[in-house]
Amino acid sequence: NYRSDVKDRLGIDYASLAAINPRIVLGSISGFGQTGPYAKRPGFDQIAQGMGGLMSVTGLPGQGPVRVGIPVADLTAGLYTALGIMVALLERETTGKGRWVHTSLLEAMVAMMDFQATRWTMKHEVPQQAGNDHPTTVPTGLFHTKDGMINLAGGGDEMWRRIVETLGLTEEAKDPAFATDKSRAANRGRTNALLQKPLLEDTSENWITRLNQAGVPSGPVYAMDQVFADPQVQHLGLEWAVPHPLLGEVKLVRSPMNLEGVAPARRPTPERGEHTAEVLAEFGIGPEQLAKLRAAGAV
């Protein structure tokens, strides 16, 4: 969480590094950008969530701003930077030169607002909180069943037809209020209420099965223990056992990226300095030089 000017004071800014090695690719993440009126401010995920608009659209209508449950600005800023670094490395194969890649928590957060942001930039429409409903697509949201709750997503006329048939609402759906996407959006409350009544007559498991068989996206709402008990999550092996030299076997979450034919590494986060010798060896520093550096307290 260094401020943007710290690298300059430490002498590890891009200009200084590129003067030593023009092929270097430097990735930087700041709170608010490398320049501008907030460039030297400290940044933190929740600050970016608030300034990027995410908190304003999260939560129930009228509830007031709500923080989401993960550090989404932190995570996405890292992902955007990693993608930028890969582009710069690919470009270097052609140009022979590196590049400075940078983003910020604020830039990442605004980018992640996606269609909610462009509702403002294109139409000057200020998005509001919609709770568990989709902001623009109806019906898409959280519904109660006989024994719990399910998520159901059904935008578009064809999906609506499937929902109506599965829930046995053919006659009720003839009401003009439910005739089109536009009319259903204008009558969101009535549309949701129409679906809610039959959904209360059967269990979540049965409705999820029937809806998915009809081609309607639907699924359960899990707590974290239920997530890892789900058969699909178990099939995908998302709980990832890793041997740790101090802690024994620890169970982490594996990377979601699947490179066919390449198994994810089963190794823990390295201890501080664990790979110093290996890294320096890549730059031609052998055991004797390394010993001198260690004796001098340089590494």
CATH superfamily of the largest domain: Crotonobetainyl-coa:carnitine coa-transferase, domain 1
Provide the β-strand percentage band.
5-15%
Which runs of at least 5 residues are low in confidence (pLDDT < 50)?
A: none
Let me know the largest β-sheet. 3 strands, antiparallel
Output mean pLDDT. 95
- Over all CA atoms, what is the radius of gyration? 26 Å
Distance between the termini: 23 Å
What is the CATH-assigned architecture of the largest domain?
A: 3-Layer(aba) Sandwich
Q: How many domain modules?
A: 4
Walk me through this protein's architecture.
This protein has four domains: 6-123, Rossmann fold (3-Layer(aba) Sandwich), CATH 3.40.50; 140-221, formyl-coa transferase, domain 3 (2-Layer Sandwich); 223-261, no CATH class; 269-299, no CATH class. Helices cover 44% and strands 12% of the residues. It is built from 15 helices and seven strands. It has a three-stranded antiparallel β-sheet, covered by helices on one side. A two-stranded parallel ribbon has the order 1-2. Strands 6-7 form a two-stranded antiparallel sheet. The mean pLDDT is 95.
